[in-house]
Amino acid sequence: MVTPDALTLPRIGVTRIRTTTGLVSTAGWSEVPHPSATRLTRVNEIEIGRGKRGRRAYSFDDIAVVPSRRTRDPEEVSVGWQIDAYHFDLPVIAAPMDSVMSPQSAIAFGQHGGLPVLDLEGLWTRYPDPQPLLDEIAALAPERATARMQEIYREEIQPELIVERLRQVRDAGVTVAGALSPQRTQQFWRTVVDAGVDMFVIRGTTVSAEHVSGRAEPLNLKRFIYELDVPVIVGGVASYTPALHLMRTGAAGVLVGFGGGAAHTTRRTLGIHAPIASAIADVAAARRDYLDESGGRYVHVIADGGVGTSGDIVKAIACGADAVMLGAALARSTEAPGQGFHWGPEAHHGDLPRGERVAVGSVGTLEQILFGPSRTADGTTNLVGALRRAMATTGYTDPKEFQRVEVIVAPHQRS
Predict the structure, then answer these.
(1) Tens digit of pLDDT for each residue in 254-286?
(2) Predicted confidence band at 48 (pLDDT cuts at 50, 70, 90)?
(3) What is the rounded CA–CA span in Å between residue 9 and residue 275?
(4) Are 287 and 299 in contact (CB under 8 A)?
(5) pLDDT digit string (tens) for 200-257?
(6) Alpha carbon of 149 to those of 6, 191, 343, 353: distances in Å?
(7) DSSP letter for each residue of 86-151
(8) In DSSP terms, which residues pair with 49 in a beta bridge?
(9) Would you report the helix, strand and coil content of the chain in percent, each value rounded to 5?
(10) In 3-state terms, what secondary structure has residue 315?
(11) Angle subtended at Cα 55 by Cα 52 and Cα 57, rounded to the nearest 5 degrees
């Protein structure tokens, strides 16, 4: 018998009692028979209308980190991160987007201590010299950008260019990571692995462990990851159950986020969106339960989308992320291929674009964005210094420990 504690409920809504083995809904708090329940979480649902209810979810702007009784010197804080056998000085991954990562910027980012990921379906694997096309994209009028980008990205991917781009990064002594969409993974994965990649990223707007298709044999993630000799990071995912299923495939890390990036229009085009703070917390809960289920296997949670400032990085880790994947934040560097603009693969989809080229400007060099010094107070530069200071201010020594920091709901409107 499970008896919930008393709690004052909203005047509109019901309370669901979620357990690790089932779900019971009640119109109020009462004794709910559920003998197999092992863990309880109270979830308030708001009535949207008589036939539909939904739970409240939170973005980074809705929450804040609370200081604790202890503080530290920032110099005593470690922001290092290790996934599988690979250690990084920064808990930061550069997003596989043409506006962010070229082979040259990937090398620079890796030398600064982060994990760079090349987009193996981007311009660098379609054209021997994509620089004139990058210049053209940066100069396009807004009303012309999407149509012209669709034309540019129609060029076929060349396997020999995949090999060459990965070789460039590997020869510089930087950890080599490449990304493919689930649709392209079956076509090019052998080329990627044979090229000597250290880490494989399967990244889409959303990735599930149970894709159903009547047209083609879907990618069997569990078998694919099992047969691969390199760690695999896969996503995106935005809620507990899909994340748990992805973790069971053997992935080393799971990307969290859906439609929250600066260049996404998924909420407008598809009506689908997952506020990132709640998504991270949900997936972190899946990590915790999978750790118990698997007997100690830890899967890394990586926030991907909506992480645009140093404060967002702090909140992502506070909500349970082990690392963050940055797109727009790095596209603001003077070395970025996008030249002050940012876009992802959704922006040039041939049938239904779900993103756009957006102007993000340039705020400094890659080194200034990561390590400062900052000349503005808007959270776009010295990202690592801000994370280190936030951890010191709240008394924590490393990102894993910082995941335990207190977080409050405190909605804030960005100016």
Answers:
(1) 999 875 566 667 778 888 888 999 999 999 999
(2) very high
(3) 23
(4) yes
(5) 999 975 565 554 344 556 678 888 898 888 999 999 899 999 999 999 999 999 999 8
(6) 57, 26, 10, 10
(7) EEESSSEEE---TTT--HHHHHHHHHTTSEE-EETTSGGGT-S--HHHHHHHHH--HHHHHHHHHH
(8) 52
(9) 35, 20, 45
(10) helix
(11) 135
Half-sphere exposure of 115 (CA within 13 A, CB side): 25
Element (H, E) at 242: helix 240-247
Task: Measure the CA dihedral 395/397/402/408, to 10°.
Answer: 10
Q: Quick one: pLDDT band at residue 38, thresholds 50, 70, 90?
A: very low
Handedness of CA 132, 135, 137, 141 (dihedral sign): negative
Q: Does the reported pTM lie above 0.85?
A: yes
Residue found under tokens 């102007």:
359
Distance (Å, whole) CA 358 – CA 138: 10
Q: How far apart are CA 43 and CA 78, in angstroms?
A: 34
Cβ contacts of residue 129 below 8 Å, gap of 6+?
none
Question: pLDDT digits over 283-312, tens only?
Answer: 999 999 999 999 999 999 999 988 999 999
Strand partners, 301: 254
**Residues 255, 236 contacting (CB under 8 angstroms):** yes
Contacts 24+ apart (CB under 8 A), 240-243: 240/282, 240/283, 240/285, 240/286, 241/286, 242/208, 242/209, 243/282, 243/283, 243/286, 243/287
**6: Cβ–Cβ under 8 A, 6 or more apart, which residues?**
29
User: Is residue 237 within 8 Å of 243, Cβ to Cβ?
Assistant: yes
